[in-house]
Amino acid sequence: MFSVNDEFVHTADDQKINNRNFLKTKFQNFNIGPGIPWDKKEFDPYPWLKKTEITNSSFINCQTNGECAIRGGVSVKNVIIESMKCSDVLTISTNALLDNLVIKGKMDLWIKPDEPAQQGSKKNDYQNRIANWLSESQKEINCFLDIRDLEAGEVDIYGIPIEKIKYNPEKMIPIYSKWNKEIDWTSSKFHVGSYWKIRVRQLSTYNVTCGLVSMPSKNDKYYAEAMEEFKYLTEIGILDNLHI
Asked: How far apart are CA 148 and CA 191, in angstroms?
């Protein structure tokens, strides 16, 4: 068994997977990145990092018992990940450049920002450069992520513009940080472990304005409560443009 990193074609400064199709491949881990997407002569805080790209490739019914993550600074373009079996959820950093990444089949998904670094630190400089790179690179991308055919038990996406995601509105719900003020979460309409309150509060934790989450699973212990809350949010106009 080998790591996905063994599949990259390496040069001194970059590593790429291009035009590859993996079917039922078992990886020791699927831990990709972090990467440095600029000329290392400009800024090289971590000499062991490389420009990291995956393009025009697919991972179908693959498996890993190790980490399953795509980290910041990695470029992913025209890639399909379908029914990846992970020991944990597939985690993707919002500091990765996604250009038509298709995730489908049976698997869970978590996309979130990286933990911010201390001001003035080397890591903080790295994150600022990543943010500038993303800002420029994302301008010409119409679709970051396509999850219309994802059959997930749980999806939590924080910090990607909703309009850049193709999703099934009957299975996934956009959420917004403004709801922290617009909704009285202390109301008796919401129980202590409210499915919706927890996820809306996460937006503040990650300091982002929007997110996309899956509808509660019928296997969830508090499914009935979550659906009652969903009905209430619809009745008060928060979700009045949505339907199940």
From this structure: 30
